[in-house]
Amino acid sequence: MLLIGCGFAGGIAHIMMTLSYQHSEVSKLATFEYLALAFAVVADFVFFAIAPEPNFYLSSALIIAATIIVTLLDRPNKTRLACQAKPPD
What we know:
By secondary structure, the protein is mainly α. It has one domain (25-89). Helix content is 80%, strand content 0%. The protein has four helices and no strands. It has helices at residues 2-20, 26-48, 54-74, 78-85. α2 (26-48) runs antiparallel to α3 (54-74). The longest helix is centred in the middle third of the chain and has 23 residues, at 26-48.
């Protein structure tokens, strides 16, 4: 059952990542791909009791910070949306 659940989760994640390319640029989505590294190390710790090395914490902090920065900078602001909604004169 666990293997089937992992297959479904991986398939759904792949579909969601593929659909995300329709809504954003590839360069902005790259940081989310790097999050997989952090999740893999966390899964190692949870399932196999393999403790991460100290440099993992710095690299994870940098990856998470980059993801947050890209997310905040990619948010559309109200003025940009208002300009796009107006029909040309």
